Structures
1.
Amino acid sequence: MRQRALLNLGRQDVDIGGLTPEDAGIIVLGGSSDHLVLDVSDAHHALNLGDEVAFWPNYSALLAASTSDYVQKTVIKGL
């Protein structure tokens, strides 16, 4: 049986087709307006409730996330 994860992130927040999980073992299966479904069966680290999942966004995903009122933004200087 494959393991799934449900994230509090959806199409109203970001272009989910433009998200690539930082962990190559995680697969984006799809989503709704406010949730994202991942297959985490092959994730390099086990995920627990409340864990964060990192993504590499393409331009459209980054633009949507940057302009969404529902996405918390944190500026990290010096990278």
2.
Amino acid sequence: MGKLKDLTGQKFGYLLVLERVKNRNNRVWWKCLCDCGNLKEVASSRLVNGNTISCGCQQFVNFKKSRITHNLSNTKLYKVWHHMKERCYLKTDKRYKNYGGRGIKICDEWKNDFINFYNWAINNGYQENLTIDRINVNGNYTPLNCRWVTWKEQANNTTRNHYIEYNGEKHTISEWADLLNISSKTLQIRLKRGWSIEDTIKIKKGGRRNETT
């Protein structure tokens, strides 16, 4: 018997292979994500031979019809929706550990129907220069927990932000950089060099001294 071919990350029809699951009936099976958002376990042979190309659900039938009529599959908003599903459900996606790996999911209303997501986006301030942001970074992708923001605003809403409190004010490094009119990199270098919070923040407000950064 030859070496088993890893199908993870490959697309068969409307099915994206997520991971291998337990063998059944002496056959290799894979967990797949359908374009409609449903999960389905399919035998390896049925994927490779083209016998199974979707989950077969009614939602998929409706979704397929909508793709024909809405003509939005090549839009940036469709790509936003598609990438959102990948980072939440595709374990081989480089961003999975920060999303699906932390338990972040997409509500059924969006995961199963792009048109629902599209309508919410258009009615809630979507513009092509904006990115989708979860208000609660530990919460799921839902209408109540999402908004459209600039990349800079999103950067100030991540679990990796370094907050600095000084003189009763608490801001991220990026926000302090704006207030002090200097670069974020300069503040980061000061902190790495072991400067105190007072020296790091106070210099600009009290008159900048000569320094090499």
3.
Amino acid sequence: MVRGGGNPPPPDQGDTVRLDRWLCHARVFKTRTLAADRIAAGGVRVNGQPCRKPAQSVRPGDVVTAAVPGGVRSLQVVAPGIRRGPPAEAQALYVDLDAPAAEPPESRD
């Protein structure tokens, strides 16, 4: 007898996901409850617009700005994510817009 337990199919890139869930999957907040509390308190913006609803949908291309301990993070959503995985998997869900740009290598003349 075969039991279903394999990996779920990857989500379509056009999928949407709840904002609180995405913030948890992307490891911006440790738990979904902390993410929902910060959203409800007004500490998160989606595409520059204030958001107070944890159920707000985000999709690839959206820019999420969140006030987190230690500063403010601006992240562009790349994928919705299917779970809260290891940090390397979480980093694949977004592009950090606050990260310093890579400097070109110095040329030796």
4.
Amino acid sequence: MNLVNRGFIFVRPTKTFIDWAKEIDTELVMGENAEGSMYLIEEEFWDDELILKQYAKKIASQEFSSITEDNTTWPNWTELAQFEAFFSIEMGCTCIDLLKEPLQKEAF
């Protein structure tokens, strides 16, 4: 096992996100237990709200684009509370890699 020098933001779609996604794609099969996404961030941070504000737009763009690339259909939000209506959020400072193989990165 290895400690990875990153913290994380874990987001899972809420009912609000799922309802929006199903309006965009009526054949989408996504339930309230939908898989979430983990975003690695700096290892040490002291203010969850400040960190979330820093990365919310990037996270929202990634999550909304997973449903549609047409950003004109993405929900408009300006306040962090609006962002949090679309995602259940967990944050932490400890990432442990259980595998021996080296981590791989792929830009997209």
